[in-house]
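Weekly structure sync - notes
Attendees: PM, LS, DV (DV joined late)
Agenda: review two folding runs queued last week.

Item 1: First target. Sequence and structure tokens pasted below for the record.
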Amino acid sequence: MPHDYAKANPAPLGLMGFGMTTVLLNLHNAHIVPMGAAILAMGLVFGGAAQFVAGMLEYGNGNTFGMTAFMAYGAFWISLVVLLFLPQWGLVAASSPTLMGSYLWMWGLFTAIMALGSLAASRAHQVVFFSLLVLFFLLGSAEVFDRPGLGVVAGYEGLFCGFSAIYLAAAEILEIQFGHPVLPIGLPGAGRSIAQQHEDLVVHLS
């Protein structure tokens, strides 16, 4: 189904919600900042709710890939905050490292599927999804195998992943604002705009 470009493109909103929240959390994972309310609030509102809204808007555009990615990762951020708060509220026991690692690995499995789908998109999309796949694998392994140092490595890798999503969001915003590509994202076809490439992605992955 072709995309109606009379509508706004929700992808930059979803990418910014994902990217900025990923950077903030991985500043903590890299031991640069301590865990705090700012990280949890960002995860709940921008990484969670805003991404979920972007996914619903992609549904309206007929974009199955965008809808699945944004709604799923929005749900991830909301579930992560809930996962951290439930033990604090005394409702359930905290997850064991093995269970937490399994949770992260399951998200890695989902991301592996999305990463394969990104092969039909730009190089920038591929960087976001494949670096996220590595991030989930590292974080899950750090929990399961009790390797705190691996978690720190994951934090720095996660900063790269988050900033790559911010870069892609910026590229889409600036192209829409100026009417021509400003930041290169490695489109699979020479001379095509992000709008044209996005339409092809909808057709291939819907």
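Item 2: Second target, run right after the first with the same settings.
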Amino acid sequence: METNHEELLDEILAIEAIYPDNLERKVEDCSIVIIKVPQHEYIKIQISFPPEYPSTLPPRLLDVNIIPDKSDVFDANYLKQLFQEVLDSVFHPGIVCLFDFLTELDAVLYEGEGPGEDSTSKQQDLKELVPIDPFEGWFASDPITDRGSTFMAFATHITSEEDAFMKLDILKTDTKMRKVSHIMSAWRTKVKNENGQEIKYQDSDDDGEAAAGSRMLHLITIMDVWGVMVIVARWFGGAHIGPDRFRHINSTAREAVLRAGFKNSQ
């Protein structure tokens, strides 16, 4: 408990240093705070931190208040539900999350504020911006760690290139995925045009890890699987591991593809 409390105090002190005018009120033990959303100070949120935070339990959003001038733009009850979804999505046991939460709120509210939109359309836009589970529909390999770098692959079923890119964009919203050094990818899909002809699409992306994407594309080609997108995330540990990285990339990619239910024809 003491460790949790110290981590919470350190987190609140950091937030006060980063946003000195935004932390409006806190109880003595910092278990409840009221903070104005950075860049959107017309919204105040009240957050409760349970004794088990951050070890096992996430914070809870107690209340959302909007100044009268903005009350016709956003509905407080809706924002409370939405903000709690964001809070749940950024929390990972053992890691403090308040800064990540406030950063996500800034992005969500910024995207949702467009001139000429009514309240209903804004709220619908906000719903679409925050996926509840970025990993929905993805199948993961076991991670491989080598000299400080960690490799982990994810595979999913796709129906088109647009579907592939959309799922990848959603996956990248996860807090841990935003911290990776490289997200290499490869995909293959078949679609029918208006004349009923089957068109094949396949491509890859190295994302800075030279030749990695093309090797992954070669892998799923020899596996003879279609309607698949596979990505390999690498968290770089500072040490270069040479050609071994390609062995880890292919190994995790193949495992994720098989776990996604694609049959290896080889």
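Discussion on item 2: Strands lie at 23-26, 32-37, 40-48, 60-66, 139-140, 144-146, 149-157, 182-192, 198-205, 228-235.
Action: LS to circulate a short write-up before next sync.
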